[in-house]
Queue: 4 jobs
Job 1
Amino acid sequence: MHISSHFFRALIVVSAALGPFAHAITPAEQLAAYTAQAGAPAQAARGQQLFNARHGKEWSCASCHTGMPTVDGKHASTGKTIGPLAPAFNPERFTDTAKSDKWFRRNCNDVMGRECTAAEKADVLAWLLTLKR
């Protein structure tokens, strides 16, 4: 085996071990990524409006997360408890890119019948970041 083969295998092992941490970020970094994708600054007021409004479907984001997502919510159809969405009240929120994207995709489809745009994600997250203890 060549040195490069050993290096390549070691790199694969290290990458696999660090995999769960590869997407660890802060909510502010997640906001910066959505804002960069949108190509425009996020607007917290627009995010609050989007969060609380119905968009042609039965639910709004607030239907499950409550109008003030600093407290536990409850899934509208299953009744399952949902922890606070605002990062200041739930430090795990928006710290994993893959998880954030997965839930935005699912929830936007439930609320709007489509995926959210990067600008909509940025706006909602910008608003959530204004909610402080």
Job 2
Amino acid sequence: MHIHAENVAFVLVEPLYPGNIGSACRAIKTMGFRKLVLVNPCDHLVPEARWMAHASEDILEEAQICQSLEEALADKHLVIATTQRGRVFHLPYFTPAELGERVVEASREHQIAVVFGREKSGLSNDELRQCHLVSTIPAALSHPSLNLAQAVMLYAYEFHKAAFAEEKRYKWRLANQVEMDSVYQHLQQTLERVEFVPQDNWNHFIMRFRRMFARATPEVRDVQLMHKIFQAVDQYLEHGSGKPKRKRNEHSSKDSK
């Protein structure tokens, strides 16, 4: 799943502090986004904003400036309002995580805006009515609420995570039964060579290792590693204290990358 970041805009309505704008630039760029829209902002190109943007000054300089929220949303197909305040009218509130997959899907062919209100008062009810969905960040306390740039970061992160969760997920290559049996056989052979004798019998002893490894769900690379350990012991026994020759392990292939 891929998000079309160029179709997702982060809209800040009348931001009061240049530092928040700069930090928001850094947040969205870190998560792969570039579109920042400012509605009646303070002076967003002062040094404070540039300091906080840090390596994201291009986002700051390319920000779209609008005179009204209507102007900012004119070409948008899906508009998400963010708020931390309860409202008199009842609307379903979505968390950033719940919106992630929907934003990813919609971004393929549609323009999306995520709207953030003023630091002191948020979005007005009239501004909220211009949006299609309402979202809030679950918090233990309503006050103090999150800083504006922190809120932008959370939404940008959740959208990025929804887009790349599957691609970033680790791909397990679990060892099969035959591969694991070869480890137990190699273990027993090596221990027998050093004249180790279990207290009960080999079947019970190896079963303890089977239980331990089963809980660990070894991968193919883990099996290869265990073979190499046993192989090192085998080579030492063959060559004594001298430096052992490199010998291909008959139980395993090359290490997986």
Job 3
Amino acid sequence: MTKFVSVGKILNFHGIKGEAKVGYSKNRQDFFSSLDCVYLKINNAYKELKIVSMRPHKNFFIVKFDGINSIDEILPYKGELLFTSEETIRENLEENEFLIDELVGIEVFDIETDEKLGFVVGVSNNGANDLLSVKTKTKHICLIPFVDPIVPVVDIKNRKIKINNLEGLLE
């Protein structure tokens, strides 16, 4: 069964010919513009929308979908999320990129002592870099900058992350 991942959202209509203003995941303009179709989730099923044309406009795209030719046909989709297959996402990941669901639940260890420090409960972004939310043994949630000097080892296969546990990092 195909898994789907959200890659954008229909923010509004644009003009009267069925075009949509589409927002996309942060820093993923190139990825979104490479898609030839997206999916809408309607009644727990995914409906394919073929992209006929797309052009950047400010911080979003103006997208024309096949078969949607008027404002009345695009309006019901206003506010709906757009998805693509997880397989498509994985094909476009760079060497040190991961899907959030791959990281959540992974145990975190000290790289020097191999002591278990906690596990990842989420991933966020502060504008400068990604942050791992790690629930420690003391049940505190700490934010760890997801950068190579602090998180040098991510082993998805063995479900382990090793960090340089700098003083004060997990307080």
Job 4
Amino acid sequence: MFEEYIGKSQERTDMLQPQQAQFMAASLGQARSFGQGDALPPGWHWMYFLQAALRDQLGRDGHSKRGDFLPPVTLPRRMWAGGRLWFHDDVLLGQQHLKRSTITKLEEKAGRHGPMALVTVTHDISKDDVLKLREEHDIVYLEDRKPGDPIADGPEPDDMEFSETFQSDSTLLFRYSALTFNGHRIHYDLDYCRQVEGYPGLLFHGPLTATLLLDLALRNIGMDQLKSFSFRAMAPIFHDEAITIGGRAEGDQLTLQAINSRGGVSMKAVVNQEA
């Protein structure tokens, strides 16, 4: 239905200032400092290349209305379903980079709970025509939840060799929304979550969960061994939950998972140490 949107592209440039990275570190409780020329940690690029739509160009959920770059899918709920990252070279702070975004896939189908649409956007971040990072970002659109629809707990977790606990809270969700200029109301408007989208609490950001898993991987394998990362959201995490993150090594891969307080896997991820 929206085939004409496949191949549509847009470009943005951004001077990657260290201040955002400093604020991100503080939000995560990390005593780190960043300056000009430092490498941006993997997963922190989501704070840059931001776009600000005018207030009258926002939809009910706080996102930009569809039909400009993204196709005008009519299904009301939008979620970050997952993605894949390939790390080609360090993205350095204090330098101007280019981000080119292209719609590479659009699929409409029937899901387990009704119609859905999946849009994949490929983002290339480069410096002086040298590719630094490639990302495939999967966005899923769903119909409104019906009264009584269950909240997914997620599948049973796999055995882990290492794990740790991270406590979520509404302040962190607010700060991350501010850092990424994410107006999606599911992350800060509790009344909207409960009355419109049918969730009991604010939703933890999918990319923030992925960032926690990436950080865990880096502390287990080292930055120079990180080649690619893929992740898939499976169940929600709410703002007052303690999250268990962990994983295990399988050859040249790390398999990772984030487990919610209900005992189910909210996100699965894989880190590859080989290109």
